[in-house]
Specification:
This protein has 313 residues and is of the alpha/beta class. Helix content is 28%, strand content 21%. Bound molecules: zinc ion.
Length: 313
Amino acid sequence: MSGPSFRALDDVEYGRVEQVAPTIRRVIAENPSKFTYRGTGTYIVGHGDVVVIDPGPRLDSHREALVAAVAGERVRGILVTHCHADHSPLATWLAAETGAPMFGHGPHPRPDPALEPEPDEPDADTVIEESTDHDFVPDHATGHGEVLDLAPGLVVEAVHTPGHTSNHTCWAAELDGARVLFSGDHVMGWSTTVVSPPDGDMAAYLDSLQLVIDRADDVLWPTHGPARDDVVEYVTALVEHRRAREAAVLHAVRSGLTAIPDIVAELYADVRAELHKPAGRSVWAHLTHLVAQGEVEVEGAGLPRLDASYRAT
Ligand SMILES: [Zn+2]
């Protein structure tokens, strides 16, 4: 299997406002990492009357870049795809600064402590990029399919796409004669998406990818990485990649592996060690999905936790 064709994003200049389409500008925050690639891409849509999508991480340099980017314009709405710390924290500041309302699916739910107790000390890996911004509360909680008429020529539709997080929402619009979807972290241009239980959900994620395939928008604008204009082909390849990974996890369990670290060691032998921890969470997501499908069960009939012992049914 060839797998999804990821693409690079070159020539990144942090803080610079880049006109990426006639009505779309992008400013990239200087928070590059193994999760955020070159950094968070904040989109500014429109001219004069604008909406801002995912204002980004709490970084002074990014805050200053956004102030400069929308100087002399009226921010009519702030759209948030989900509340990870590289997406939503500056929303509240920008709302206070501009008076614009914030839109999003809703605040991030607290994880089920039965599945995963909250750590006393968050580990350094997850503190910045994939930690959760529990403070974010939208002024208006949008439901799937809700249409927001924010300014002349600026009509945006909420497309609820749970999976990466349960509250993930993509934002659709017709811009410059094209049907575009701001895809947040649901579909990224450069890599697969982290699906990390208990809030991340593989079944929901696969359904949400199918939703994007069925919509067949002309262009995806992800928060991380380049735009994709090969939407159906690319997202279909992402689904196939996950299905192949899930089959490999099932095969590993059927061959007698019971613990997630052992399955990771087997399946991710060729992957950098720093990625084994997120890989473990991805395997956990697949196992949870396999348990729901009745292909795998948890030893002792317990919950499908990260530290559980799994076996084939
Ligand atoms: Zn995220």
